[in-house]
Amino acid sequence: MFHPKRIPAHILLSFVIAAQLCHAQSRPLNASEKIIIDTDIGDDIDDAFAVALALRSPELQILGITTTFGDTETRARVLDRFLGEVGRERIPVAAGSPTQTNNPLTQRRYADGGHFARASHPKAADFILEQIRRYPNQITLVAIGPLVNVGALIDKDVETFRKLRRIALMGGSIERSYGDLGYFKPHGPEPEWNIKNDIPSAQKLFASGVPIFMMPLDATQLKFDEVKREILFQAGTPVTDALTLLYHEWGQQTPTLFDPMTIAYLVDPTLCPVKPMHIRVDEKGFTRAEPGVPNANVCLNSEVDAFFRFYVPRVSGH
């Protein structure tokens, strides 16, 4: 006779985690997904493109946006202006604890313009925990910056943190490093920015038991070339005009849209098919795929052309 006590503990644990990952993928028809975006907007430009996609996705209910890493108050003011310019100033903006970094904020002038600046911003960790308590097991945290706020959440109230529905993470490198676009044999992994800038927090995340949907370098090196930029920037909407200005303040030519894949995946998972894996974050910030009970669903290959055919019309309003 079948008896659950005869099943080894590690097998039972794998069943539990697999069930959590499957449950985290499901969403009732016609129901918007509650999300909080945790971002280091203001230096590289891909965060702004990710926020734009979220704003243009009715499938998602943005409960708030939090800033992480470095000068978090200036990052928050970038968001204040961006949200104000596009008529979404009611979305809460919270600031994480500042950290030391030499990374320049290329879009500081946009923030310093003072447009739509709020008098103050709540603390990111407090805001996120409050939202999780209000909506237990319903919120997806979209982590597209170094994991400083994630570590703070775990340290402050791990039981509440575990009531997240899931985390959509842009981070890590499994087989491909920066500049390896998938045309040739993989060069091998390297420590990725969002992981290596807070390795202890990343280690805590992968040990937390919260379902993780991971978009590493392998699947997110999406080059936004001149033709696609011209189509988007000519749309002349408040969202595309804000992106155009931020792009020019960024001051480089061809963005790599790492972060928007997390938002795209939430709306259309076929754009970045995932598979369960066991990921260990080592002391150097490598995300090692190893044997063991899966603790993440990982996308190793994205549909690049399908992504841009999804992204450009949606964000441009066509």
Description:
This protein has 318 residues and is of the alpha/beta class. The chain has a single domain (29-316), classed as Inosine-uridine Nucleoside N-ribohydrolase, Chain A (Alpha-Beta Complex). The chain contains 13 helices and 9 strands. The chain has helices at residues 9-25, 46-55, 72-85, 108-112, 124-134, 148-161, 193-196, 199-206, 217-220, 226-233, 238-250, 260-267, 304-316; strands spanning 33-39, 60-67, 93-95, 139-144, 166-170, 212-215, 274-281, 287-290, 296-299. It has a 9-stranded mixed beta sheet with strand order 3-2-1-4-5-6-9-7-8, sandwiched between helices. It is globular and about 50 Å long.
Summarize the structure.
This protein has helices at 9-25, 46-55, 72-85, 108-112, 124-134, 148-161, 193-196, 199-206, 217-220, 226-233, 238-250, 260-267, 304-316, and strands spanning 33-39, 60-67, 93-95, 139-144, 166-170, 212-215, 274-281, 287-290, 296-299. By secondary structure, the chain is α/β, with parallel strands linked by helices.
